[in-house]
Amino acid sequence: MNLSQALQTLVLAMAATCVLGAEDWLQFRGPRGDGVSASKLPTRLEASSLTWAASLPGRGLSSPIIIGKRVILTCSSGPKQDRLHVLCFDLEGGAIRWERQFWATGRTMTHEKTNGAAPTPVSDGERVFALFSSNDCAALDLDGNLLWFRGLGRDYPNASNSLGMSSSLLVVGGVVIAQVENDSESFTAGLDVGTGANRWKLDRPRRANWTSPSLFKGADGTAFVALQSSMGLSVIEPATGKTIASYDDGASTVASTTPREGRLFVPSQGLTVLELAEPGQPLKQIWRSAQLRPGTPSPLVVDGRVLILNDGGVLTCGSMTDGTRQWQLRLKGPFSSTPVAAGGFLYCVNEKGLLQVVDPTKPEGEVVSELDLGGTILSTPAVAQGSLFVRSDATLWRIGKPPENPL
Amino acid sequence: MAPPNLALPAISLLFTSFCCAAPDTAWSGALETIKCIRAQGQGNDLAKPAWKLLAAGPSSSIPALLEAMDGANDYSANWLRSAVETISQRDVTRGGKLPLDELEKHLLDVRHTPRARRMAYELISKTDASRARKLLPGFLNDPGSELRREAVQQVVEEALKTRSNGDKAAAIAGFQRALGFARDVDQIEGIAKQLTELGQKVDLQKTFGWVTKWALIAPFDNVGGAGFERVFPPELKIDLTGEFDGKANRVRWLDYETRSEYGMVDFNKTFTALKGAAGYAYAEFVSPVARDLEIRLGCKTGWKVWLNGRYLFGRDEYHRGVEIDQYRMPVQLDAGINRILVKNCQNEQTENWASEWEFQLRITDSLGTPIVSAR
Fold first, then answer.
1. Distances (CA, A) of A59 to A156, A334, B60, B76
2. Which end of chain A is less packed: N or C, by CB atoms within 10 Å?
3. Is the same domain home to A154 and A120?
């Protein structure tokens, strides 16, 4: 390679890095809903890796989402967790740009481990849609102006779970998808992004369900949404809510499906990998592994590997091709948060606030660094702008500065 | 009062009226639009431009927006709240001043809705914390739970200090005073713990004001959860002397009185630990006058409640948790005898944590003050 070619390669690589580094994180588990970012983050974490920390006015399990220079986060506060907060932080310095609060209109009772701000908000890049355990949903523009408000727990008064609700929102094709599934008045609704009115409402299995919907694309690029429940999986058209395919062999009600390259990695009977067959036909099973058993954290698929973290902290790596178990690594648990992957490394934060960076390319996997954030963390991190964003009940952290001079 | 500081000249004209007179027509129209929002997102489309107009207003419009929360439904109240926040955060960021005197006037007028008064308090507190703090003791008997809670907490903290200084008698007096005004369950329990540690007996059953005397009948069939919707004889007519076909045998009403501090009406105690069973509890509550109150229920299995033969609400959720005042049902009690019927269903789960078949019920005002039967 001559100098000119080398420079060209370097410029292209830098451009790619800039584009990828600038990728927003608009929903639970990122742009593809799989928890994987192409961004490179620092892997040797230490106290100086903390770019900023911001105090929070309430509790939450929801993940931050990142839209350009804005970091959006939800919290709930008050003795009954009935004060609902949507906050916008400045990405660079962590200052609060704006805060909006709402009075919950639905039931706010939850198990003490969770709280009112469990679902992660979603953005279409222009608007923010924030859902809470009370099934209250607010739509705001990026400057915090209210666009609409729905009290789904008030509109449908038996749509609640005394342990709390946690399903995160999706937005696709002008529809906000809210999976409001529980033992009683169980449904999934498609809400109009402009007004919040129901575009469609689908009756769903009457069983408690804490999983989030997954967006994926069929072979022709058509977007579909997978709704997971104790019964299995339903694939729906986001515009109409019409079910086009299903899988009925049961699935977890906690860990969510991970979409990857048109396939669905479903926490079912261990782990079952499915893909769309012909329209109207059941989903086609590619493989199933009883050795890969997700607990609370959802599966990750990174560079040909399936990575499953159980609640106790055992990280299991399997082949993406057939699920064959390759290695197991014990991390310091317990875990509720799903890890994220960036630059090929896993970022796993346990319930005690210990962030562990894992290199899954090593023959048995390897923890390469740890950073003790302190405090209880049950939330899944977000990745954007070359940084990791993690929240506890009291603090939001930005970890890992972007390179000051990439040249 | 200084003229409002507005970004938009047209709107500036619109809002000058807040300085000295009633808001103008466009503002009032926007407010009405917000107050017309209903369930299912009805009115959201019209509310968006109306909200924008209100939110562009000056901080001098905040008291009027708070006042508009009186009688507003929960959807509209949230839209109004958001407008107030938008105005206050924008104006404070620009170095503007909130109308603290008007906010205090709104706060101190207990005819206004409690949450709007609380919002006024928080706005004052953010701007002038010492001014807010001076007002706090006046909210000890407030009709709003949040203001009251904070005032009670102040008394609790004083009592804790007194206790740590070794003045037991003063601490007991302080905690007892706090208990008399406390309405939030966690606060009551915290105060009761302090008093118990100081050797004082706290009658929690009386403090919470449970309905303790019931007639029970069970078991009816709830195999497969089908009994939740099935109508058994007590739903058709209360006949306390009757005998009916139950799940396996004939069943009849039995007198029951709970001694639980938490008012639990425990079907397992009377009928043994049954599965796939439904039971009923009946109580009479005497009110000297017709009045608006709340029936508050805690139950971790399927339930339905009727008042004077009218169905109130029901829920077929099993073993997801229970807490005091888990469900609040606004009701109008008749003068005289009011008949309360509770259906309580147990499912067929066999785990240890799925054994409870019980409920707790009390009648309170909207603040949570227990109201007991006149006889």
1. 25, 19, 33, 25
2. C
3. yes
8 Å CB contact of A147 and B48: yes
Helix (H) or strand (E) holding A80: none
Domain-located, residue A247: no
> Same domain for A108 and A127?
yes
Least CB-CB distance to A103: which of B45, B74, B300?
B74
Helices and strands: H and E segment counts in chain A: 2, 33
Say yes or no: A300 and A376 in one domain: yes
Chain A residues whose CB is inside 8 A of the B45 CB are 194-195, 197
For residue A109, list chain B residues with Cβ-Cβ distance below 8 A: 321, 323, 326
The alpha carbon of residue A294 and the mean position of all alpha carbons in its chain are separated, in whole angstroms, by 15
Stretches where chain A sits below pLDDT 50 are 1-3, 6-7, 9-21, 403, 405-407
ipTM of the complex: 0.93
A23 in a domain, yes or no? yes
If asked whether residues A149 and A101 sit together in one domain, one would say: yes
What Å distances lie between residue B240 and A138, B246, B255, B342, B343, CA to CA? Answer: 50, 15, 10, 14, 15
Closest residue in B to A189 (Cα–Cα)? B40
Q: Is A154 exposed, middle or buried (CB count within 10 Å of its CB: 0-12, 13-18, 19+)?
A: buried
Range of the domain at A205: 62-165+167-209
Residue A250 tokens read as 């049961």
Residue A184: both structure tokens together: 């009683």
Domains within chain B, CATH numbers bracketed: 9-139 (no CATH), 145-202 (no CATH), 208-364 (2.60.120.380)
For A106-163, write each residue's pLDDT tens digit: 999 999 999 999 999 999 999 999 999 999 999 999 999 999 999 999 999 999 999 9
Q: Which chain B residues contact residue A98 at CB under 8 A?
A: 89
- Chain A residues touching B187 at Cβ < 8 A: 79
Same structural domain, A2 and A69: no
- One domain for residues A82 and A172: yes
- Residues A126 and A157 placed together within one structural domain of the fold: yes
Are residues A82 and A154 located together in one domain of the fold? yes
Give the C-alpha separation, A344 to A342, whole Å.
Answer: 5
Query: Would you state the pLDDT for residue A9?
Result: 44
Instruction: Give the count of domains, chain A.
Output: 2
Q: Please answer yes or no on whether B320 and A103 come within 8 Å at the CB atom.
A: no
Beta-ladder partners of B359: B265, B299
B41/A195 CB distance under 8 A = yes
CATH of the domain at A197: 2.40.128.630
